[in-house]
Amino acid sequence: MPIQPRTLQQRTLVFILLPTFLLLMGLSIGGYIFVRNILLNQWGETAIAELQKTAHQIDMRMRKPKDLLQVLQIDGKMNISGEVFEYILQKIKSIDGVIKVKVTLPDKTPDRTSPGKTMARMMTMKMRHDYTLGQLTISLPKYDNRLRDRTVSLVSELETTTGNGTGRIEIIISFDTFVDQVIAAPWWKSNKAYLVDDTGNILASTFSKKTNPAEKRPNLFGRENKLEKATLNAIHQNNSGMVFGGGSPPEEVSGFYHLVEAPWTLVIVAPGKKILQPIIRFKIIYSLSIAACTLLILFFIRRSTNRITTMIKEITLAAENLARGEFGPPLPVTTVDEVGELAGCFNKMTRQLKQRLLLKEALSVAREVQQNLLPHTGYSSRRISIDGISNYCDETGGDYFDIIPLPEKNGKVGIVVGDVVGHGIGAALLMTTVRALLRCRISQPGTLARIMTDVNRLLCKDTERTGNFVTLFYLEYDEINHAVKWVRGGHDPAIVYSPASNKFSELKGRGVALGIDPDCHFECNEMILPNEPLIILIGSDGVWENENPEGEQFGKERVRQIIAAGSVLSPGSIVQSITDKLQSFMGEKSQEDDITLAVIKIDRDGDHISTTTGKPLNNREELP
């Protein structure tokens, strides 16, 4: 399951501090291993160089008697005079470390004569035989009680060309004389060191004593531990090299080098801690430095992130208070980074939000004022009942609906529906202006045509700079004469439905929108109503032009069907039915235009509520 830190501090710890710490620790461990390997290789190269130098010294000492013996042979045969032979033997004896030279002739009679007699005898034998000198071999060191010293023998077989017998030349050398320079070397004394042969016999070591009569048989190298066994196997495969023991750092490290003139190998074994003492010191210093730097880096990171998280917490708390409608003091902007910019933007947002809330409160007041300007109740008399509604898509709207009783005009009543271009505050202000002008002018003498012409002229003074306008339909019902008059100022015609004939018609007429042309003269339309129930609907275009999520408009036809189906209902019920069906039609799509409806229901003389029903038709006819 992935780690999901819940707070910013946890995210900082998991995604910043912890990876930084692991990265630094990985770099320190990698650096330690790299330097450790370099030091081990350098120690190996130095140790092998020392072994090579010491082995060369032993090889040079051993090479001298070998080279002198090689002088005895010319073309593979000993074809020299007795004086030369004796001279070479004397030169071999004079070499440092050579104890004795023994010559055994093919008759297996050891040489026990003086040098002069030996020479004479050899010269005699020269006349009878030719000799060949065999390969020189080296014996293991052995303790000589008489000499109180360990010796090794360089032996070369003497063979006659006729095959009549064999003899040999044996050069006895002090072993300790050969290795005294090795034993005196500093590296020999400061480490475990060995001189071993190919079979693993220890010829000399830092643990052996020079004079030890009990040392009759050398110890075997490779019995002590795994490192010695691995070193012995490496000796059989390579002339020189290094072998590492177990552990990290390795407990012990060995180096070896083969001699050239003898089947011996010099081996040095050193403790890993001693070899890696510099790297151990470096490791301690490096680890302490890395730890200090890591803690310092983590401290600065934590300090920086704490400052960031603290500021973010302050912004979060301020945002929570702001969500509850509490406006606190501005947040302090103490940095110039992104967090400082965030705090500055939050302060700016808070100021603007406060301004918008104040504006919204003002809009709410404006909405309340505007709603108070609309009729709160319907109108009803002996033969007519009126009801209507205005639903705005914003806080305030531009639609205008009004019912104006005119008692000064013999009980007449006026119904007005207007639609100001646009939405919002501007449209609402223009609507209130139209309402004020109309209510003020309609109370004065004059025909409807004259009244509307005067209202238009006055309105144009306010709209000449903005280009705004308003469509308006004014209908006046005369209950005494059972007639209607209307003026159409660019608005949609009123819809008239006759339940008796189940037919629709429209109240049309010429006229342009108000606020466009100050010289426009409007005309009044008048009609005597038949003695039958009628339903008149005056609406704004938001009723039939609002769309559903698919982009389809509600349309006037649906409005007619609702009117026909609810003809027996009251005007308020018809209005409610239309608005309910419209809301259901729009679904989740928001209202895009103001919706205003005014329904006028006129009954027959004596009947206040019509019971006539009929089926909706799609045809429309003008009233006769």
Automatic annotation (TrEMBL):
<dbReference type="GO" id="GO:0007165">
    <property type="term" value="P:signal transduction"/>
</dbReference>
<keyword id="KW-0378">Hydrolase</keyword>
<feature type="transmembrane region" description="Helical">
    <location>
        <begin position="12"/>
        <end position="35"/>
    </location>
</feature>
<dbReference type="InterPro" id="IPR001932">
    <property type="entry name" value="PPM-type_phosphatase-like_dom"/>
</dbReference>
<dbReference type="GO" id="GO:0016020">
    <property type="term" value="C:membrane"/>
</dbReference>
<dbReference type="Pfam" id="PF00672">
    <property type="entry name" value="HAMP"/>
</dbReference>
<keyword id="KW-0472">Membrane</keyword>
<keyword id="KW-1133">Transmembrane helix</keyword>
<dbReference type="Pfam" id="PF07228">
    <property type="entry name" value="SpoIIE"/>
</dbReference>
<keyword id="KW-0812">Transmembrane</keyword>
<dbReference type="InterPro" id="IPR052016">
    <property type="entry name" value="Bact_Sigma-Reg"/>
</dbReference>
<protein>
    <recommendedName>
        <fullName>HAMP domain-containing protein</fullName>
    </recommendedName>
</protein>
<feature type="domain" description="HAMP">
    <location>
        <begin position="306"/>
        <end position="358"/>
    </location>
</feature>
<dbReference type="InterPro" id="IPR003660">
    <property type="entry name" value="HAMP_dom"/>
</dbReference>
<dbReference type="GO" id="GO:0016791">
    <property type="term" value="F:phosphatase activity"/>
</dbReference>
<feature type="transmembrane region" description="Helical">
    <location>
        <begin position="284"/>
        <end position="301"/>
    </location>
</feature>
